Amino acid sequence: MDPHFYNLFPNINVSDHVFEQLVAMDADNHIVPALAESWRLVNNLTWEFKLRKGAKFHDGSPLTAEDVAWSLDRPATIVGSPGKFDTFTKAIIK
């Protein structure tokens, strides 16, 4: 299953049970920590996220900032998607 292939509710619902986000929404629609334990606005164009200590992939390798950047870049590279996620990521400037 490719979490970036198709922006469709059933796919997102399943992905939410397998993959974790940087931030999540609680029952009251407040943004809460997930893989990011904190975040702050550095300036008008820059956010800084502090990754949760000890966050690892299923193989035991640690989660890094490079992994997060790759996940944000990847949706624009998906070919043949009927509903791409780059709608959410294309405004991000590096």
Structural features, described:
With 94 residues, the protein is α+β, with helices and mostly antiparallel strands. The chain has a single domain (9-89), classed as Dipeptide-binding Protein, Domain 1 (Dipeptide-binding Protein, domain 1), CATH 3.90.76.10. It has three helices and four strands; from the N terminus they run αββββαα. Strand 3 and strand 4 form a beta hairpin. The longest helix has 9 residues, at 65-73. It is globular, with a radius of gyration of 14 Å.
Secondary-structure blueprint:
Blueprint: H1 9-16, E1 23-25, E2 31-33, E3 36-43, E4 46-51, H2 65-73, H3 86-89
Antiparallel strand pairs: 1-2, 3-4
Percent strand equals 15-25%
Helices and strands, in order, run as: HEEEEHH
Q: Biggest sheet, strands in spatial order?
A: 1-2
- For the termini, the CA-CA separation is 28 Å
> What's the CATH class, please?
Alpha Beta
Largest sheet: 2 strands, antiparallel
Structural class category: alpha+beta
Shape: globular
Please name the CATH topology: Dipeptide-binding Protein, domain 1
Gyration radius, rounded = 14 Å
Uncertain runs are none
Q: Helicity level, as a percent range?
A: 10-25%
Architecture per CATH nomenclature, i.e. the level-2 architecture = Alpha-Beta Complex
Report the strand count. 4
Mean pLDDT: 93
Tally of alpha and pi helices: 3
The total domain count is 1
CATH superfamily: Dipeptide-binding Protein, Domain 1
